[in-house]
Amino acid sequence: MTLTPDEAAAAIATGSDAEMRRLQQRLAADLPMAAALLGELANNRNVAVRDWVTWAARRFLDRGAAIGILRRLAEDADSDVRLEAVAELVDLDESWARRLVPTLRKMLSSRDPIEVSNAIWHLVRVRDSSALAPIQNLAERAPETLVKNQARAAVLVLTGAEDELVKLLVAHDHRRAPLWIKCLLYLGSERALAALQDFALHGPDEECRRRASTALTKLQQVKPIGIH
What we know:
This protein is 75% helix and 0% strand. It is mainly alpha-helical. It has a domain at 1-93. It is elongated and about 60 Å long.
């Protein structure tokens, strides 16, 4: 029996766990049908459906078909969908980091502070030198405290402020420790990672030790990607 886009969308949006399992089984069993169906669902009016497609594309389609759908979703009207599509594209093929830089730069002008913050760290990961100036501008002038703080931290990573970041972590401002942990993880240098490992073992409180330890498990997800 053919599965229509409306039926699939209903299962994604409101279906039971059993319905979702059946949908995934049918997608896995029929690649051409999966490609056509996910292509249709990428245009669905329901944001939750499109967001699910960003997850499903890599898992049920071959590389070419997945990239085709994720490229479209990287320009989606919803910021969460855009960010998920960008992350999936880079995970699928690191060479997409270079091609996505213009999209990420455009996200820096978003009105959504979460999207801006995520774009900042994607650009940090690809070490895009052309993004330093606009990120510095956000560090100085962004109206949202979240964006301003994230941008200031990102500038330290992009400018290689290893000594300063290690000192900030060791000084242990508990409220800001998660940010310095993130910076050192994204910096990814031998000394930065050694400082995190030491903090995970000998940090001044259990919460901070746990944060550093958890961050280190995500090293592969944020390791620097050269784009030049």
